[in-house]
Amino acid sequence: xxxxxxxxxxxxxxxxxxxxxxxxxxxxxxxxxxxxxxxxxxxxxxxxxxxxxxxxxxxxxxxxxxxxxxxxxxxxxxxxxxxxxxxxxxxxxxxxxxxxxxxxxxxxxxxxxxxxxxxxxxxxxxxxxxxxxxxxxxxxxxxxxxxxxxxxxxxxxxxxxxxxxxxxxxxxxxxxxxxxxxxxxxxxxxxxxxxxxxxxxxxxxxxxxxxxxxxxxxxxxxxxxxxxxxxxxxxxxxxxxxxxxxxxxxxxxxxxxxxxxxxxxxxxxxxxxxxxxxxxxxxxxxxxxxxxxxxxxxxxxxxxxxxxxxxxxxxxxxxxx
Amino acid sequence: xxxxxxxxxxxxxxxxxxxxxxxxxxxxxxxxxxxxxxxxxxxxxxxxxxxxxxxxxxxxxxxxxxxxxxxxxxxxxxxxxxxxxxxxxxxxxxxxxxxxxxxxxxxxxxxxxxxxxxxxxxxxxxxxxxxxxxxxxxxxxxxxxxxxxxxxxxxxxxxxxxxxxxxxxxxxxxxxxxxxxxxxxxxxxxxxxxxxxxxxxxxxxxxxxxxxxxxxxxxxxxxxxxxxxxxxxxxxxxxxxxxxxxxxxxxxxxxxxxxxxxxxxxxxxxxxxxxxxxxxxxxxxxxxxxxxxxxxxxxxxxxxxxxxxxxxxxxxxxxxx
Lengths: 321, 321
Known about the structure:
Two copies of one chain form a homodimer.
Chain A: H1 4-15, H2 25-36, H3 42-52, H4 60-83, E1 87-88, E2 91-92, H5 94-98, H6 100-118, H7 126-151, H8 158-183, H9 188-215, H10 218-221, H11 227-230, H12 236-244, H13 247-257, H14 264-274, H15 277-297, H16 303-318
Antiparallel strand pairs in A: 1-2
Helix pairs in contact in A: 1-3, 2-6, 3-4, 3-8, 4-6, 4-7, 4-8, 7-8, 8-9, 9-15, 13-14, 15-16
């Protein structure tokens, strides 16, 4: 059993290969370019960890983890088109560099390639893995659609926002772990607990992301503070503030969203603090991490095998970058 | 064994069901809208015919044929975005009606749904069917990319154009038949011949399409004559004319492509006729149909089972609409 860091290294080594033919270059170069931008590769490593929680590594876990990473990159390429995002990881997005048609099509071919990797695994669990993969893919699309829908609405409830984040980001963390656990021979109950562990960890991660964008130390976080506020992004913090603010504060927040004054960030943060959104976010994150750890506890496997995942959850809980 | 027409009726009945959940409507309504526009459903029916060539209908053929039709519609939705097409089957395209982001995402979810149908079939041939499906999907993407690349190039060779058409349209006809034949229990040799039958028939179909656009009877064809010429589309006819024209004719063709004069169609057609492109296209179509029928002949199955496909090829050969 290896740690998250060790498995990340293993995955990177394994993933560092040609995933596409060379021609037509106009189709495959954009796909190669985007994969070359890197990323934390969290989801495929979750798949490997899910496998190792139950048994030694099944060679098929490399195929499924590659498929998961390709799927995730496919969603990013297409999301960037839909969001008209100019940059990803400080580099031009695919549609910025190669044009929208090539970006759209290279995303499509990346999704097909993900299914090619899945199709290399043993027949005995092919049906089950594809079923989870499809279900998750569909949910991620639904999450992205809800996210776009919510942009056009002035106020959304906490539960609506939570559902969107679950679909858009958390289910893929949960199902990556679950797919790995299937390859490790886990039974249905254990699979379910591991899925819930991942889903809750994903939610904690998103809360922390939103928190750090507003209250983090820019020197550690690596991004300018308040990016979400400038972009009028609906975040856990914003949703909570709108739900708990006084009429006066709510009016002020709405007015601030329509401006881009130099002190916009400071003014919004002041309201956030007045509404105790910062404390609330920390509590919410802890709630999700606690729920995640409870599900991990409930998995029927030797405690020692759970250590890498426990360690990872602790790391998520404390991270300030 | 049923005819093409009978199987089309059966497929339509089977396909007339809800393929998507109702929510979020903003994601699934565009997908439902597009499927509602109809279409000839040729590819899924090829799958059914490929099955019936060898054995009575395998219930899994309904799943695979639905997957094929969803895949085909996914490519059309995305192609329309890339081509900025305002109309499809005389109705607004998905991106025209619902916006580009929703069109992109509902195409994505349609592709995922295609894989869901495939995942319902028996394990014994799941690997093989997914392999062919993925290979074809990848080739169709390559064909669309080449098509877009060729738009930016002044002259392309016949063999380049042929390769593009093969990828973009013919391989899906071939592999639809092949996937059906697998479900009917066909061996490798028979599968290969049936695939080649479909591929050549697809090429013949495209040649005929190009021919009818230029020389067909508008009353029968249902489209205005010369649409491809007005749009400066590279077609079998145009490629051939450019390859066989005199220096003077080639200059004239290039000049005509830069204009939109009222007599553009007549002038281009005159050059086409001078280059005997019309006769050549008929010979080319016959060549493809003959090759297709040769492959059908070579399939080791009782002649009587081949009749529906022979009938279909004859119909393709003679159609003037």
